[in-house]
């Protein structure tokens, strides 16, 4: 995995340079190592400290110093199945659990009342920001339209930012990433149908969408994007990655590959996947997705043989070299859905059972598997859960058009 790059730096505020008693570098060095909660309180000390703490220079410095590898979290989101009910009347919370040590609860944040009363999808997480998408369907006159409402949310400092809404009548795929060279955050949207592919990029600093050149698709060729099950699009090596199928319309030939988007130079590249994309009968695998596993880009394929299902996890040793794929893990138990893989090598799956009685409703539970120790732990979560990175940060503190709740 690529090493953390130092973000683009700006000059410190001039007010900090006028400190009479301590050199500004000493003040900055001390404050940059303090927790977020303390820094928010210290904004009240004086104008110079407030100017410093809210400056892009300090926010990027604090992020760089504190951005250590702390593993992944299980993000437990409330499930909303009745959009007509009063939104968030009980002030639900989002809960973060560590991926080890008995699933201990680490953070708990109230969900802002501004969020739509619909189930949230996690687009991605980066530097303490969660990018959430809500699909809102509305009936207008004789036609129905679907709107993607997207928020950037920093629960540590109670700040959120609503992106310009997206209305669409065909398929879209979203990815969330950090642009290290500009110290900015990007949301990438790929809209596609049988006849067109359009790419748009949102940047947090500009607070707007702009259109890039469409994907270079030869005539008579179609690209199908996988839904990646419940997993966010992985951000790895400075690029977002989608699993796609290239279909030649005339020959009906299907080629599986990974499409990467470099968020710094905004270019696409194609990455080959492991061989044997189909099973012995010539049929496609039941499900497939990509994620990060033990710090590397991974491809997961699900297959059913007889009455047994299992998942094969392929990880790439050398990024960009398709011959370096290896299969480090096979999970042979029967499960109903994959919700994430962690840096430590744990797998979060869903298991639904009828408790031996088919007429009884299914009981939903999540299973956290440690494949090396060959053990598992079950948790009765009725809410949707994801695997995501998280840290407390000051991201969004200096942004325009940010909402404080």
Summarize the structure.
The protein is mostly beta strands. It has helices spanning 14-17, 24-31, 36-42, 47-53, 56-66; strands at residues 73-77, 93-98, 105-110, 120-126, 129-140, 143-154, 159-162, 166-168, 171-179, 184-192, 197-203, 208-212, 221-225, 235-236, 239-248, 253-262, 267-272, 287-293, 296-305, 308-316, 325-331, 337-341, 347-353, 363-370, 375-379, 384-388, 403-404.
Q: Any idea what the shape is?
A: globular
Biggest sheet statistics:
6 strands, antiparallel
How far apart lie the N and C ends? 36 Å
Structural class: mainly beta
Given the structure, what is the number of helices? 5
* Mean residue pLDDT: 79
Write up what this structure looks like.
Strands 4, 5, 6, 7, 8 and 27 form a 6-stranded antiparallel sheet that branches. Strands 13, 14, 15, 16 and 17 form a 5-stranded antiparallel sheet that branches. The protein has helices at 14-17, 24-31, 36-42, 47-53, 56-66; strands at residues 73-77, 93-98, 105-110, 120-126, 129-140, 143-154, 159-162, 166-168, 171-179, 184-192, 197-203, 208-212, 221-225, 235-236, 239-248, 253-262, 267-272, 287-293, 296-305, 308-316, 325-331, 337-341, 347-353, 363-370, 375-379, 384-388, 403-404. It is mainly β. It has 5 helices and 27 strands. Residues 22-62 form the F-box domain. This is F-box domain-containing protein.
């Amino acid at each position: 995995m690529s090493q953390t790059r130092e973000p683009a730096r700006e000059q410190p505020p001039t007010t900090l340079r006028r400190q009479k008693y301590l050199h500004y570098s000493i003040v900055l060095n001390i404050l940059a190592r303090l927790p977020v909660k303390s820094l928010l309180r210290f904004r009240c000390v004086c104008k110079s400290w407030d100017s410093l703490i809210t400056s892009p220079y300090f926010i990027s410095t604090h992020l760089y110093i504190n951005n250590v590898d702390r593993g992944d979290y299980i993000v437990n989101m409330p499930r909303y199945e009745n959009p007509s009910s009063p939104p968030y009347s009980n002030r639900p919370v989002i809960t973060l659990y560590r991926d080890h040590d008995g699933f201990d609860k680490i953070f708990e944040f109230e969900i802002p009342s501004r969020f739509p009363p619909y189930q949230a999808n996690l687009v991605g997480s980066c530097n303490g920001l969660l990018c959430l998408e809500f699909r809102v369907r509305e009936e207008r006159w004789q036609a129905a339209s679907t709107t993607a409402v997207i928020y950037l949310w920093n629960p540590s400092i109670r700040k959120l930012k609503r992106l310009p809404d997206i209305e669409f009548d065909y398929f879209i795929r979203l990815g969330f990433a950090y642009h290290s060279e500009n110290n900015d955050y990007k949301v990438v949207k790929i809209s596609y149908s049988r006849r067109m592919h359009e790419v748009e990029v949102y940047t947090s600093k500009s607070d707007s969408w702009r259109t890039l050149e469409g994907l270079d698709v030869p005539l008579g060729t179609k690209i199908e994007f996988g839904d990646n099950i419940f997993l966010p699009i992985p951000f790895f090596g400075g690029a977002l990655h989608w699993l796609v199928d290239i279909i030649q319309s005339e020959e009906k030939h299907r080629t599986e590959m990974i499409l990467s988007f470099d968020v710094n130079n905004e270019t696409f590249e194609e990455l080959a996947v492991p061989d044997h994309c189909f099973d012995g009968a010539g049929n496609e695998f039941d499900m497939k997705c990509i994620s990060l596993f033990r710090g590397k880009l991974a491809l997961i394929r699900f297959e059913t043989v007889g009455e047994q299902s299992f998942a094969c996890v392929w990880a790439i040793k050398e990024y960009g070299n398709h011959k370096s794929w290896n299969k480090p893990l096979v999970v042979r138990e029967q499960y109903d859905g994959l919700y994430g893989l962690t840096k430590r090598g744990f797998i979060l799956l869903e298991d639904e059972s009828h408790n031996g009685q088919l007429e009884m409703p299914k009981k939903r539970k999540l299973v956290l598997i440690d494949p090396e120790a060959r053990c598992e732990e079950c948790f009765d979560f009725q809410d949707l859960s994801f695997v995501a990175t998280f840290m407390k940060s000051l991201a969004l503190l200096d942004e325009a058009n940010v909402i404080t709740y």
